[in-house]
Amino acid sequence: MADLARLQGRTFLVIGRAGMDLYADPPGTRIEEATRFTTALGGSSANIAVALTRQDCRAALLTCVSDDAVGRFCLAQLDAYGIDRTHVRAVAGEPRNSLAVVETRVQDCQSVIYRNNAADFAMTVQDVEAVEYSAFSALITTGTVLAAEPSRSAAFRAFDLARAAGLPLIFDVDYRPYSWPSAAVASEVYSRAGAVCDIIVGNDVEFGFMAGRSDLGLDKARSLIADGAQIVVYKMGEKGAVTITREAEFSTGIYPTQALKPTGAGDSFLGSFIAGLGQGLPVRDAVLRGSAAAAMVVARVGCAPAMPTHAELDAFLGQHPGPTA
Hints:
By secondary structure, this protein is an alpha/beta fold. It is built from ten helices and 13 strands. It has a nine-stranded mixed sheet with strand order 5-4-1-8-9-10-11-12-13, sandwiched between helices. Strands 3-2-6-7 form a four-stranded mixed sheet. Strand 9, helix 5 and strand 10 form a beta-alpha-beta unit. Helix 1 crosses helix 8 (about 265-280), helix 6 packs across helix 7 (about 215-225) and helix 8 (about 265-280) runs antiparallel to helix 9. The mean pLDDT is about 95.
């Protein structure tokens, strides 16, 4: 069991994809009716890294990008956000970066994801073995990393190396069915990952999937604590979240907001929650910071550009003393 006090070093290694997001512009426009788009850094792991840096943490990304203009766009964006890309490798040939075409709409929001021959799945064991894990406070990964080889084996090798260096392992379930060869493979791999991680965050659908039945998701979350995890956050959308630790279980609500779109909330929550733990906050307070950050992001255009700064999040919390139940 890793010592979560190490999180207070506030220097995080995030494994997983960086991509390009194309937003139909102006906000409210349907993709099929759009004549122009705005660009932004995308990909759940890159978004989490941005959320961390905006909360005054340091973040490095471990992944692969395509050796083309879109890959170079991602590298330039990582630089702009102050994310260390020492361990981001460009791969030549046919692999292509993840691309998302997205709408800024609350109702019937369409998000079209292109993940054919995704460059981030080209990450190898050699890539992860080149990292000095002792330089980091924790390893963060999303479930998408595990969806294909060689990325899957590389990620599990990174888990082993990080664990040997004493790092807490943080797992955002992030289940995307289109990335997996089958639901059975995904369930088995997720169970293997959940068994070795210290902090696990997912939504009710994702935990239900891991349990094999939608009505058993919360039981699955609780079982992960019994199996060795230290913190599990079971998110339920507008119903808030249930957080489970070895000492207690508690529920929290959401912060009211005027949402523009549903995307980005999960990445914002994870980054700000972990940053809160890195500040030494009690778990409940860290969860509330994550929930507030999620409320802020869905009220803004984009995902990475919408991540609040530490000062902005403090100001929001000062104006909203408590979430709704």
